[in-house]
Amino acid sequence: MKIFGDYHMHTYYSDGEASVLDMVRAAKDRDLKEIAITDHSFNKIFNGLRRKNFNRLVSDVESARSEMPILLGVESNVVSVDGHIDLDDKMRQKLDIVLFGVHVAIFYSLRGFFTFFLPNVFFNSLHFVPGFLKRRNTNIVKRVIEKNQIDIWTHPNRYFKLNVVEVARTCIEKGTALELSAKKISFRPIDFEHMVALGAKFVINTDAHSPKRVGDIARVEEFLKNCDYDPRCIINLNQTWTSFKTKKESDSDTQQNQTTDTSKKPKRWRRWF
Ligand SMILES: [Zn+2]
Ligand SMILES: [Zn+2]
């Protein structure tokens, strides 16, 4: 099994060990054709990307683009029960791809802290998630997918438990891909098969925090051995991917043909299906 691109990895701008260039060179060694650099977004308490470093990250990515196509993104966080994430429109316009995943230590809104963070941490410590909390988590994540333009929902059902199939329905409506994480898959093969049958799209990512993990998808391969699925539901397998570079070139072709509308912003968002 071979992936075309790896769309989730961290550098030392958040909690990764290495530079952008180190990750890019590792991806080249693994024969990947495209990657996304997706550090943790700003509200992650201990190791999120810091706003003062953002421009340095951008220039690191720009200079590394001489090596291979790179998408610049972040892995954003939910900050409120209404489904708001830690990414404003101004910052979003500077990105090529937006990931979203539930993490634990986040600067939440006051209500988010008391109704999302605290009960989840409490019940997780008891290794028991009551139905009301699972429903609440499901609704919060659904709101995130509905309200924000999310390209990939990372590590579904990790940390705070929810109904992954129900959220997948919203992902299908909104064109959001679900991640098969090479770090850990937190749903069952039967859930995966159910989501595939509904029409969900998946992307295999490593969530690498060091160069040696880039492109290593062994755990996903192991998981998929137990699943009955159509490989076409995984959008970065083999050569099925349309590379970002190609996408940009076709965008500029379109713009050249449309000579009148010069105010049109370049298309930043790639919809998956
Ligand atoms: Zn994550
Ligand atoms: Zn991550």
Label this structure with key terms:
TIM Barrel; alpha/beta; binds zinc ion; globular; 9 helices
Written description of the protein model:
By secondary structure, this protein is an alpha/beta fold. It has one domain (5-257): Metal-dependent hydrolases (TIM Barrel, Alpha-Beta Barrel). 37% of the residues lie in helices and 11% in strands. The chain contains 9 helices and 7 strands, in the order βαβαβαβααβαβαβαα. The protein has helices at 20-29, 54-64, 89-92, 110-125, 131-147, 164-174, 189-198, 218-224, 244-257, and strands spanning 5-6, 34-40, 70-76, 97-100, 152-153, 177-181, 202-205. The chain has a 7-stranded parallel beta sheet with strand order 1-2-3-4-5-6-7, covered by helices on one side. Strand 3, helix 3 and strand 4 form a beta-alpha-beta unit. Helix 5 (131-147) packs parallel to helix 6 and helix 6 (164-174) packs parallel to helix 7. Residues 8, 10, 75, 154, 207 line the site of one zinc ion.
